[in-house]
Amino acid sequence: MPKRQLGAHGPMVSAIGFGCMSFAGFFGEADDETSLETLAAVEAAGIDFWDTANLYGMGRSERIVGQYLKESGAEVTLATKVGIIPGPPRAFDNEEDYIRSELESSLKKLNRDKVELYYIHRRQQELPVETVAETMGKLIEEGLIDAWGLSEVAPSTIRRAHSVVPVTAVQNEYSLWTRQPELGVIQTCEELDIAFIPFSPVARGALGVADLDPSTFDDSDFRKVNPRFMGQNWLENMDYIRAFRAYAETKGVSTPALALAWVLHQGDHLIPIPGTRTKEHLADWAHAGEIGLSEDDLWEIEQILPAGWAAGDRYSDQQMVGVERYC
């Protein structure tokens, strides 16, 4: 597994990380034993940068990760997040007392005395991000976290925060069907030596090895009310996806591996964090870091999936709450 540096002063980590959101059932029912087996496969694949959050299953994902780390003794660079209070209605808290309380809880679940990276999952808009940066700086000084980051934020927020306490990573959605970060976030991170961490880099499973059928999604599935997976939007999106899958076949690679390789080729400071519930799906893309893409390949992909091709918004109105819009 190739390595990339996590920010200007962070550790070298696997070029492909792993997102643990699906262990909490966001994409359909999850099984804890299967999740533990998946983490074993993740470790075996050389993926040593893992990402979770206190929100995922209200601690379920963190507990699974913590159990695996305790039982296996695996050494990984670990990230978790704080700041979202689930609703309805969804709310946000970036105050110091709340952050400290949630970090203490997360560390217990993770069986850790610190985490390498701690994100503000969503900004509390009425609280200056400079104040939040000061809080995270205190946690760094106290040895409770090694570094901090932000999620789903605008370039202006990144600059303001970074001017107070250097930001190590920014995590926003980015893939072949969600390309808004190209309008400022990717460039800002590169300029400031911040790692950019694309989540959902294989389009929430849409760019998988086989067609999805949204009619079979569980009621708890995050995608059930996601506009891109609904009605006419999904039918139009499938035309593009099938064309991309056909191109991947001509290259002798899987659709998700090619989608992930494309993300990796957008900059050396990008460290995508795909996720899955099973080791079988992991095998579909774990080798993506070894796929080389020529300028001709990148041009061909752009013709098949041009910027803005996806029909429907990437979030429903309810899912969009808390996301910073800047374009």
Briefly characterize the structure.
The protein is 37% helix and 12% strand. With 327 residues, it is an alpha/beta fold.
Tell me what the structure shows.
- This protein has helices at residues 32-44, 60-72, 96-110, 129-141, 155-162, 185-192, 231-251, 255-264, 279-285, 295-304, 317-320, and strands spanning 3-5, 12-14, 18-19, 49-51, 77-82, 84-85, 91-92, 117-120, 148-151, 169-173, 195-199.
- It is of the alpha/beta class and 327 residues long.
- The chain is 37% helix and 12% strand.
- The radius of gyration is 19 Å and the shape is globular.
- Helix 2 packs across helix 3 (96-110), helix 4 crosses helix 5 and helix 5 runs parallel beside helix 6 (185-192).
- The protein starts with a strand and ends in a 7-residue tail after the last helix.
- The chain has a seven-stranded parallel beta sheet. It has a two-stranded antiparallel ribbon with strand order 1-2.
- The mean pLDDT is 96.
The low-confidence parts are none
Mean pLDDT: 96
CATH superfamily: NADP-dependent oxidoreductase domain
CATH topology: TIM Barrel
| Number of beta strands | 11
CATH class: Alpha Beta
Helix segment tally: 11
**Which quaternary structure do these chains form?**
single chain
Order of helices and strands: EEEHEHEEEHEHEHEHEHHHHH
Name the beta content range: 5-15%
Terminus-to-terminus distance? 35 Å
Question: So, CATH architecture?
Answer: Alpha-Beta Barrel
Binned, the helix content reads: 25-40%
Structural class: alpha/beta
Basic shape: globular
GO molecular function: oxidoreductase activity
Keywords: Oxidoreductase
Protein name: Aldo/keto reductase
Organism: Celeribacter ethanolicus
